[in-house]
């Protein structure tokens, strides 16, 4: 389970920027910290992940370009880390995790700018070269704020990393009640070759539910929109339609119908053509069904979530997963503005 926890935490921050595909951070060795200094050639402060290019010189005097990536812009813009002190041509120092498969790649946790300002770019990191650093002020660890007697689901909800990382939502794939076919598919899974997230290609259901960024429910009368910041995703939940789900085309998010049980929004989703259950290689069959329950707390400070997946191709019995969000006044679902190619 220790290995899974490390993998899950890394997968929350997983990604690329630059010309490489959006991939699993299992590539990086978080048990080691590498420190290098060089000339900053490129700064791409963008989604899906912040990317730096650093130019150094090896022991033989040859120029070496380091491909360096960090968390997503959506993670960092909810901290006080900004790129204003990172300029192309500056000499900077970086520290982070070395790649296991590429000698000139790393995941950066700390940057020391030419003017002496340190940036902490990972929520688990501490200042390395200075007593204070930009990036330490963050809303990610803040709990929920009550909304009062008129609390409803129709607001913006955010992740609370002090409570749990969104990827804690998943179990170890080996702990699921897998069918023989699913076990065989899982055994062939390669997290680098078969990564679920690819550049700016959106995720489908239910994988998208792990995303750490804010979500918002919008009441449109006959439908409810679930706005998810990652990839600017919008799910449409049909509340009054008598259209049969089986008549609808299959999509990555599926066809969702909802109803109320008190203040709980219950959503049944089918017609999903997304082939992944989770980011860790568990497959999803073509006839999977998902029942979700979104329940706000009495004071509106929290939204509890339960998902029951029924997929006879993958599981021998239904699988239940849980997570939650909190209400923070002023939080917004912001444009994701994903950019796959390396900024020049």
What does this protein structure show overall?
The chain is mainly beta and 344 residues long. The protein folds into two domains: 2-120, Nucleic acid-binding proteins (OB fold (Dihydrolipoamide Acetyltransferase, E2P), Beta Barrel); 156-326, Lipocalin (Beta Barrel). 7% of the residues lie in helices and 30% in strands. The chain has a nine-stranded mixed β-sheet with strand order 7-8-9-10-11-12-13-14-15, with no helix packed on it. Strands 1-2-3-5-4 form a five-stranded mixed β-barrel. The protein starts with a helix and ends in an 18-residue tail after the last strand.
The third-level CATH topology of the largest domain is Lipocalin
The main sheet orders its strands as: 7-8-9-10-11-12-13-14-15
The share of residues in extended strands comes to 25-35%
Q: Estimate the global geometry from the Cα principal axes.
A: globular
Give the helices and strands as they follow along the chain: HEEEHEEEEHEEEEEEEE
Structural domains: how many: 2
What value does the average pLDDT take?
Answer: 90
How far do the termini sit from each other? 41 Å
State Rg.
21 Å
The stretches of 5 or more residues where confidence is low (pLDDT under 50) are: 1-23
What's the level 1 CATH class of the largest domain? Mainly Beta
Tally of contiguous helical segments? 3
Strand count: 15
Proportion in helices = under 10%
List descriptors.
344 residues; mainly beta; OB fold (Dihydrolipoamide Acetyltransferase, E2P); Lipocalin; nine-stranded mixed beta sheet; five-stranded mixed β-barrel; 3 helices; 7% helix; disordered N terminus
């Amino acid at each position: 389970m220790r290995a899974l926890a490390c993998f899950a935490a890394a997968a929350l921050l997983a990604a690329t920027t630059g010309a490489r595909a959006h991939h699993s951070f299992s590539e990086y060795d978080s048990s080691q910290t590498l420190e290098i200094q060089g000339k900053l050639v490129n700064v791409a402060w963008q989604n899906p992940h912040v990317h730096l290019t650093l130019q150094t010189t090896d022991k033989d005097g040859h120029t070496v370009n380091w491909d360096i990536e960090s968390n997503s812009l959506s993670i960092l813009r909810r901290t006080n880390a900004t790129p204003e002190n990172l300029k192309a041509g500056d000499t900077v120092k970086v520290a982070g995790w070395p790649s296991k498969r590429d000698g000139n790649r790393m995941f950066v946790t700390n940057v020391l700018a030419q003017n002496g300002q340190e940036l902490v770019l990972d929520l688990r990191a501490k200042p390395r070269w200075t007593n204070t650093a930009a990036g330490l002020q963050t809303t990610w660890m803040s709990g929920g704020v009550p909304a009062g007697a008129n609390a409803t689901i129709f607001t913006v909800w955010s992740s609370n990393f002090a409570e749990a990382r969104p990827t804690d939502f998943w179990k170890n794939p080996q702990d699921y009640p897998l069918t023989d076919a699913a076990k065989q598919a899982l055994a062939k899974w390669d997290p680098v070759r078969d990564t679920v997230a690819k550049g700016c290609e959106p995720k489908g259901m239910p994988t998208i539910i792990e995303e750490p960024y804010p979500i918002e429910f919008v009441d449109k009368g006959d439908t409810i929109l679930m706005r998810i910041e990652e990839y600017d995703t919008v799910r449409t939940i049909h509340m009054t339609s008598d259209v049969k789900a089986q008549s609808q085309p299959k999509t990555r998010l599926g066809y969702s119908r909802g109803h109320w049980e008190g203040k709980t929004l219950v959503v049944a989703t089918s017609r999903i053509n997304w082939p992944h259950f989770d980011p860790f290689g568990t497959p999803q069959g073509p006839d999977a069904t998902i029942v979700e329950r979104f329940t706000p707390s009495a004071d509106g400070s929290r939204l509890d979530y339960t998902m029951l997946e029924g997929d006879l191709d993958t599981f021998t019995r239904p699988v239940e997963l849980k997570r939650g969000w909190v209400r923070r006044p002023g939080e917004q679902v912001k444009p994701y503005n994903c950019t796959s190619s390396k900024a020049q």
